[in-house]
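in:
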């Protein structure tokens, strides 16, 4: 059972309105607990949950509970929409808690009402990632002969290390080192070959820079050696589904994990991507990935999630996911977004090759930052994206609208 906020007042926006009313802080805090409106999409409801919601919301005292709209049960069984203010929804959670056997419904609703809460900060190397303060940058360093946009560019260790240092100097908060291409149709690489590519680069970067390093791999053997050499984040494009030893290796090293969603494998994923509801399926798969990470002992504050743009998804799927990225907030983890130079951006711009996709990349990261959809963007062009994010993050956080908005008066 899943309850997803598909539309929700943002507390920060509502608070700005309350400031305009001249209300003092305690009154604003009280109202922010009650007023925000949310539309929750419910899926996977059983008949008892459906009956309970219908009874309470349709026959309870007017105004006490949210509005309830049951889905077409012949077409979409177990679906419904709840629409109401926070205090109405909280009353419903309380009623579900007090009923027999409705705890899963209460839990699902409670999780949906907590999406405004910021994920726990992540400590990576010497740096603290304080979510909500700005959009963080993951710089891409592919040490592969065949990645789609930069394959072969950094084939020698010296060139790769120099590029990693340049990414750090340009403002990358973490540098993601990968030795296996995951572009559509890419062939598998052995652990030995992957290690031969990435290990000297990680060692070289570690010797010359304090920037946190991430290892982009699906293999426990590669991750283990990379973590021992100084990486502190494992970026697994299979979300801990490919190598069952990878979660434990990550946990043992005290490392963080970036868990991505992919439908299929790189070899076949773009042949016929298919979803009934791409957001729901990505959400459910990522929830399983997070559960695998937690079961291995990786704490919540060290788990990042990524919808896997372009991994077993059509251009339409990518755009729909980007439009609904906020729904992934339900997982309570920071959201990583990798759209840099990807094919759908080239298509939207009339068929541009990877080296001409920077404008599309900038538009995409800026849009995600303004809507607070992403906490980390994984990009090739760190300096350019950093400047775009400086503007987009400032727009999202703008609070000084003149004396009418001044909370201190
Ligand atoms: N994309 C690629 C590789 N690794 N990792 C994460 N977490 N998210 C992504 O979107 C992602 C990834 C493929 O792009 P590349 O060839 O430019 O590295």
């Amino acid at each position: 059972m899943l309850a997803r906020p598909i539309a929700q007042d943002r507390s920060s926006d509502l608070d700005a309105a309350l400031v305009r009313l001249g209300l003092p802080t305690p009154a604003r805090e009280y109202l922010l607990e009650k007023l925000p409106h949310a539309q929750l999409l419910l899926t996977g409801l059983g008949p008892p949950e459906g009956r309970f919601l219908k009874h309470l919301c349709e026959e309870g005292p007017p105004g006490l509970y949210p509005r309830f709209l049951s889905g077409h049960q012949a077409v979409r069984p177990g679906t419904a929409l709840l629409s109401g203010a926070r205090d109405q929804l909280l009353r419903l959670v309380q009623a579900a808690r007090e009923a027999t056997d409705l705890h899963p419904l209460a839990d699902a609703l409670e999780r949906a009402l907590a999406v405004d809460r910021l994920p726990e900060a992540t400590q990576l190397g010497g740096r603290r990632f304080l979510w909500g303060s700005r959009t963080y940058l993951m710089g891409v360093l592919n040490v592969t002969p065949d990645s789609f946009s930069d394959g072969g560019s950094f084939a020698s260790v010296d060139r790769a290390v120099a590029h990693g240092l340049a990414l750090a100097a340009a403002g990358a908060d973490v540098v993601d080192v990968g030795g296996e291409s995951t572009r559509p149709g890419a062939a598998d690489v052995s652990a030995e070959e992957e290690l031969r590519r990435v290990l000297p680069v990680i060692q070289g970067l570690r010797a010359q820079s304090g920037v946190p390093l991430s290892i982009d791999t699906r293999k426990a053997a590669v991750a283990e050696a990379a973590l021992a050499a100084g990486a502190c984040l494992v970026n697994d494009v299979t979300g801990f589904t490919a190598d069952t030893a990878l979660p434990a290796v990550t946990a043992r090293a005290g490392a963080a994990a970036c868990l991505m969603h992919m439908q299929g494998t790189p070899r076949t994923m773009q042949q016929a991507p298919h979803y009934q509801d791409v957001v729901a399926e990505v959400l459910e798969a990522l929830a399983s990935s997070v559960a695998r990470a937690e079961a291995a002992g990786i704490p919540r504050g060290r788990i990042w999630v990524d919808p896997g743009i372009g991994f077993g998804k059509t251009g339409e799927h990518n755009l729909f996911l980007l439009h609904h990225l906020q729904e992934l907030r339900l997982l309570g983890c920071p959201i990583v977004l990798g759209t840099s130079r990807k094919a759908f951006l080239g298509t939207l711009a009339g068929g541009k090759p990877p080296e001409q996709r920077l404008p599309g990349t900038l538009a995409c990261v800026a849009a995600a930052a303004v809507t607070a959809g992403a906490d980390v963007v994984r990009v090739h062009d760190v300096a350019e994206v950093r400047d775009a994010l400086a503007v987009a993050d400032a727009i999202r956080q703008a609070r000084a609208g003149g004396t009418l908005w001044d909370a201190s008066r």
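note: Residues 140, 142, 147-149, 178, 182-183, 216, 235, 237, 258, 260, 306, 308-309, 336, 338, 378 surround pterin-6-yl-methyl-monophosphate (CB under 6 Å).
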